[in-house]
Specification:
Layout lengths: L30 H14 L2 H16 L3 H12 L2 H4 L1 H51 L6
Helix pairs in contact: 2-3
Length: about 140
């Protein structure tokens, strides 16, 4: 069978892609409209417009607008934290510490539940002993 030939009469070729004429394989129905709008924007926006927008962004960042700072740095340097191995290692360490704290919390709660069960059992035994003494009955140890 050819690599791109339909497999077993299905609507997909050998690579899993839709074959020609498949109704489900028409793609994004809004693509043409989005392309038209993008083209209109590109016609309208000049290099001077872009410079003015960048200048406004830089001014906001300099004034302390944290959203502008983040956007500017992400656009200039890329998303460093997503690509930086040290940041990934730090995230992994924080995640490991978070999981360890959660495990310790669960263990503490389990210990508290055991302690609560022991206390409850002791209270039940005391109530039973009180009732037995009021009835003049002696309980076995």
């Amino acid at each position: 069978m050819a690599r791109n030939a339909p497999s077993n009469g299905s609507d997909h070729d050998g690579r899993g892609r839709f074959t020609a004429g498949n109704k489900a394989g028409k793609g994004n129905p809004h693509h043409r409209r989005v392309a038209e709008l993008r083209a209109k924007m590109l016609e309208r926006v000049t290099p001077d417009d872009v410079s003015a927008v960048v200048e406004a962004l830089v001014n906001k960042a300099k004034a302390g607008d944290t959203a502008a700072i983040k956007l500017l740095l992400d656009r200039v340097f890329g998303r460093i934290a997503d690509h930086d191995a040290a940041a990934a290692e730090d995230r992994a360490e924080r995640d490991a510490l978070r999981r360890e704290r959660e495990r310790e919390r669960v263990e503490r709660e389990a210990g508290l539940n055991e302690a609560e069960a022991v206390i409850h059992e002791a209270e039940q035994r005391r109530m039973l002993e009180l009732r037995a003494s009021m009835a003049g009955v002696e309980l076995p140890e």
